[in-house]
Amino acid sequence: MLILGIDSSGHTASVALYKDGVVLSEYSCNIGLTHSQTLLPMVAEIFSRTERSVEQLDAIAVSAGPGSFTGLRIGAATAKGLALGYDIPLLEVSTLEGLAMNVRDTVSTFTEPARAMTIEPADRIYVHPIMDARRSQVYTATFLDGVRQGEEEAIGIDALIARINALPGRHFFLGDAVPVYRHLLEEQLQVPFRFAAAGHLLQRASSIAMLGAEQLAAGKSVHGRDFHLSYIRKPQAEREREASGLREYDITHEDPGLLKKKEAEDRLAARNYKIDAGPGYEDASVPENL
């Protein structure tokens, strides 16, 4: 199975091609450009370098949130544009599960997740992906041997630290909130803890693709029109719309940063990468700044 992974949920834009247990190529960019400037050219580049094409894809796995509202919408629009244009199934992957996947096989208490809860609490290793949600909050979930414990949530960093201090065991942190709150974690945590190395700290499209492969094997793909993002906390624009009585926010048809896929064909062709017409071509959308 050939799977394209896309993650634009944070400052880093990342794309990867994954086939049958092997990451063929991964391309991440965190140089201050917007995802609307970088993401689709990165997709074109990774196909060019691997001598693969969109037509060969079995599925597209994309980070479905939580994360940056704008970044998530750009990633979703890019994935949906390709999926609708080529009738390719989409795979909705949690950003937090993707982060935990970065270290799933290297940070573990036990080789068999089902037995993890049978060992002494002090010997368990909990993985905490934390993403900056602004306003002194983070998006997070707790994982034990690759299995999420409880729900994904937005929580104040002080409340999270207090909760972790009450949880016996060793604790491992990764995500873009680590640089933001590292000083607080170092000062206030009273349990053994570590931070991920730079290569595993941030979102990686290869992890999204690997989790997507597991979903595809389990028959959990969705059609492009049925893809949904998981914000956890509603975007400011949507909260304002609800307060004023306007209709529900739609990520592909109301965002001014999106346009019809056909209108973008010339821009793609200018980059020597042409997307041909396919089912749903007229309705697919891509970021405006290709």
Helix content: 25-40%
Classify the beta-strand content into a percent band: 15-25%
Note the total helix count. Answer: 9
- Sheet having the most strands: 5 strands, mixed
Low-confidence stretches: 247-268, 270-290
Strand element count: 12
The secondary structure category is alpha/beta
Written description of the protein model:
It is a single chain. 44% of the residues are buried. The chain has helices at residues 35-50, 69-86, 95-102, 157-165, 177-188, 198-201, 205-217, 236-244, 265-270; strands spanning 2-7, 13-19, 22-29, 59-63, 90-93, 125-132, 137-144, 147-156, 170-174, 193-195, 258-260, 285-287. Helix 1 (35-50) crosses helix 2 (69-86) and helix 4 (157-165) crosses helix 5. It folds into 2 domains: 2-95 and 203-287, 2-Layer Sandwich (Nucleotidyltransferase, domain 5); 104-195, Nucleotidyltransferase, domain 5 (2-Layer Sandwich). It has 290 residues and is α/β, with parallel strands linked by helices. The strands form 3 sheets. Strands 3-2-1-4-5 form a 5-stranded mixed beta sheet, with helices on both faces. Mean pLDDT is 84; it is low at 247-268 and 270-290.
